[in-house]
Amino acid sequence: MLKLPDDGPARGRPLEEVLPGDGPGAIALAIFRALPSLAARLAAGRLHGDPDAIVGTNDSGDRQKALDVAAHEHVVAALRAAGVRQVLSEEAEDVALLNPEGAYDVAMDPIDGSGSIGIGAPLGMLFSILPAAPEGFMRPGRAAVAAGYASFGHSVDIGFSLGEGVSIATFDAEMGGFRIAREGVTLKPSAPVLAYNASNERHWPEGLQAWLRDVRAGKDGPLGRDYNMRWLAAAVGELHRILLQGGAFLYPADHRPGYRNGRLRLIYECTPIAFLIEQAGGLASDGQGPVLDRLPDSHHGMSPLIFGGREEVETILSYLSR
C-alpha cells in the first residue's frame, strides 16, 4: 500500500471489541465478516465473469443481476450460521426460514444500487434486525433493535447502531478486519448539499417544486444560501456521505404510475436508513410522518423517503405540506 508522508500504523479499535458477542451485535458482526469477500468480488469486476449479467427478476419487477443473487445467498449463509430465525431480502419473493427457534429476524437489501454494478460507482447493502415475533416483518420500523449498512467505494466502510448512537468502521486490509473510524456520529442540523434525481422534478408535488425553485434561487432567494447537488443513484452512498458531511436526500412520491408510494422498499431500505439517521440526530420522513412509524402493507412495499439533517428535512416538509 502506498504510504503518505504522515502515515503511521492503522488506528481504531477492531470491530470485535465494540460489537457484543451475542444478540443483535453478534448478528451484525456475522454480516460484516461476510463483506470482505463480497467487496473483493466487486473489485475484480469482469476479470472472472460478468457480475452485471441478468439472471432473473425480483418481486418488484427489477432485473436481478448475478451479483445481486450471489450476495443474497452469501449473506443468508452467514445469517443461518448466526442463528437468525428468518430473513426478508429484496432478492427473494418469500421470507426464508433459517432457524425456527432463532431469537431475531433480519431484513436486508444485499446489494443497493445494483444498476451501477460494473462501472465503479458506489454500491452498498442495508439491513435491520428485529426480535422474533408472530407478526414477522409486518411491523413498523420502531420494532427494529439494530441496523447497519456497508458502502463499497474506494474504501469498504460500514455503519451500524444497536440503538445507542451510530458508529462507522473501515476495512483494514493489513489486519483483515474492520477498525472503528468514528463513534457517536452526529448529523449536522443544516448543510447545503442535496441528493435527488433531478430528472424526476416535473413529476413531484407542487410544494416540492416550489422548494426546488427557491433552492435554485440560491443566496438571493427565500432560503438565503447556495446549494450543491450530489446524486450517486445508491441510497447507501448518500446515507454514508450525509452521516459524514450532512445534507439531505429525497426520493419522494410523485405522480407517475408505480411511483405514487415512492420507489424505495420500506422494510429493508427505508427502515434501516431511518433507524440510523434518527440515531445520529437527524430526521427520516415519508413526507407525512416518521418512516419508522409507517406500517408495511406488504413485504416488498414501497415508501417515499426524505432524510438528513433535522433543519434541512423540516424545511423540505414545510414546503411539501403547502
Q: Can you put this structure into words, describing what you see?
A:
- With 322 residues, the protein is α+β, with helices and mostly antiparallel strands.
- The protein has two domains: 171 residues, Fructose-1,6-Bisphosphatase, subunit A, domain 1 (Fructose-1,6-Bisphosphatase, Chain A, domain 1, 2-Layer Sandwich); 129 residues, D-Maltodextrin-Binding Protein, domain 2.
- It is 26% helix and 24% strand.
- The protein has seven helices and 17 strands.
- Strands 4-3-5-6-7-8-9-10 form an eight-stranded mixed β-sheet, sandwiched between helices. A five-stranded mixed β-sheet has the order 12-11-13-17-15, with helices on both faces. The protein has a two-stranded antiparallel sheet with strand order 1-2.
- A hairpin with a 5-residue loop joins strand 8 and strand 9.
- The model has no long low-confidence stretch (mean pLDDT 95).
